[in-house]
Amino acid sequence: MNTKIWILLCLPIFLLLSACSKEDDTDGDKQVLFHVTISDIEAYNATATITHNGSNRDYYYGFVVEGHVVNPMDEITKLISSPMAEAVFASPINQRKHVMKIGGLSPKKSFTFIVFGRNTDGQL
Questions:
Q1: Taking Cα atoms as reference points, which of 109, 118, 115, 124 lies closest to residue 48?
Q2: pTM here?
Q3: Fewer Cβ in 10 A, N or C end of the chain?
């Protein structure tokens, strides 16, 4: 009887510890995940708050595309090969939380805000 009670008391602790364990990183690189919140939406501008799980050494970029984007990688590839790429890459963001004003929007149109990072080798 005492063994059953001990197992019942230890089971939640074991489950808690296993749920909080650090996942193994198979490829040696930590994947940086971004979270974007859009607020203060007005007719011609909005505010984007960007946070991520990386460090202040991780650089990232943000840009706006008109319409609903199904595949952000296609838009990132277009940006990289466009004349705008130099201007975007000239102003990297490296804060874990960054608030930026997005301007040049149009009323009654939809827009997608895309955030992506690049490592020191230039890989996305």
A1: 115
A2: 0.68
A3: N
